[in-house]
């Protein structure tokens, strides 16, 4: 793959806008659609969402857990959906939140390898065994043009229990952000001093050909932005719009208008189904508001 994930993401945002729609087929939503909680209901739900949205939105974000709970048949549904979505032009971000060490982390990184049955453009990962534990997935992403979004400052109520803890003078969340900043800096490897912030400040915030392939997850419903994203060099995945309480105004308040932010909406779009036109209309409303 010649283009990096960061380049493909910047191109997709330029062509389609920044909206990411989560695909979260949890039981209450299947029931709302009048579908059974089984692999057939899962397939009908997923087919409808991909068919309605993959041709227009920049990113689709399936939540792996909702497919794994149906076993091999559920994963087969996801394999088909990922291939169809990417063929229609959407980037696929697998919401897996994987985190481990050594060969196990390397195996999780295989989702980014061409030829994998679930080959996706990017995936979410957890750094809480230490940011360096993610290095095998970083290496795979670099080799194959994939991307990673690392949990950094999430907005679930007790996130601060760990994310506000101090490592020296920095919070855990800031340590994560700084590690990802290093990954987006050419030549930097784990163990090196962190790159000088001033030297990379210009690549921090905007979409363009220098957008890095490594991003962080920062919740759109935070009361305030309590991590420094300066010099990040890559995108911010901002979940929480809509049903979780986040708004476009919150995005502007936290990140400004020019940042490389991928806002994520799930329930507010998915609740409009199963009618494909209604799904598209719901996504279009968010896309219009995000670009206003």
TrEMBL record:
GO MF annotation, one: orotidine-5'-phosphate decarboxylase activity
Enzyme class, UniProt record, top EC level: lyase
Domain Orotidine 5'-phosphate decarboxylase: 18-282
A Pfam cross-reference name: OMPdecase
Entry keyword annotation includes tRNA-binding: no
Domain of life from the UniProt record: Bacteria
Record EC number: 4.1.1.23
Gene Ontology BP annotations: 'de novo' pyrimidine nucleobase biosynthetic process; 'de novo' UMP biosynthetic process
Pathway the protein acts in: Pyrimidine metabolism; UMP biosynthesis via de novo pathway; UMP from orotate: step 2/2
Alphabetically ordered keywords of this record: Decarboxylase, Lyase, Pyrimidine biosynthesis
Catalytic activity field: orotidine 5'-phosphate + H(+) = UMP + CO2
Similarity section: Belongs to the OMP decarboxylase family. Type 2 subfamily.
Protein name per UniProt: Orotidine-5'-phosphate decarboxylase
Organism: Geodermatophilus sabuli
Gene that produces this protein: pyrF
């Amino acid at each position: 793959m010649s283009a990096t994930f960061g380049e493909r993401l910047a191109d997709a945002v330029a062509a389609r806008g920044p909206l990411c729609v989560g695909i979260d087929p949890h039981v209450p939503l299947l029931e709302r659609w009048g579908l059974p909680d089984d692999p057939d209901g899962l397939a009908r739900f997923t087919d409808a969402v991909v068919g309605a949205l993959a041709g227009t939105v920049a990113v689709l974000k399936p939540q792996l857990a909702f497919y794994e709970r149906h076993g091999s048949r559920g994963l087969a549904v996801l394999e088909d959906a990922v291939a169809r979505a990417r063929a229609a032009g959407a980037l696929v971000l697998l919401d897996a939140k994987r985190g481990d060490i050594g060969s196990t982390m390397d195996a999780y990184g295989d989702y980014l390898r061409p030829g994998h049955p679930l080959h996706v453009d990017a995936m979410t990962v957890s750094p809480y065994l230490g940011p360096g534990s993610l290095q095998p997935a970083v290496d795979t992403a670099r080799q194959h043009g994939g991307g990673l979004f690392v949990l950094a400052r999430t907005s679930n109520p007790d996130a601060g229990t760990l994310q506000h803890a101090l490592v020296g003078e920095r919070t855990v969340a800031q340590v994560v952000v700084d590690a990802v900043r290093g990954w987006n800096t050419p030549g930097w490897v784990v163990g090196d001093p962190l790159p000088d912030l001033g030297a990379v400040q210009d690549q921090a915030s905007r979409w363009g050909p220098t957008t890095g392939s490594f991003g962080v997850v920062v919740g759109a419903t935070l009361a305030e932005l309590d991590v420094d994203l300066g010099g990040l060099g890559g995108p911010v995945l901002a979940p929480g719009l809509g049903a979780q309480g986040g708004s476009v105004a919150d995005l502007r308040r936290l990140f400004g208008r020019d940042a490389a932010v991928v806002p994520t909406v799930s329930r507010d779009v998915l609740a409009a189904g199963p009618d494909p036109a209604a799904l598209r209309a719901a996504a279009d409303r968010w896309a219009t508001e995000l670009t206003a």
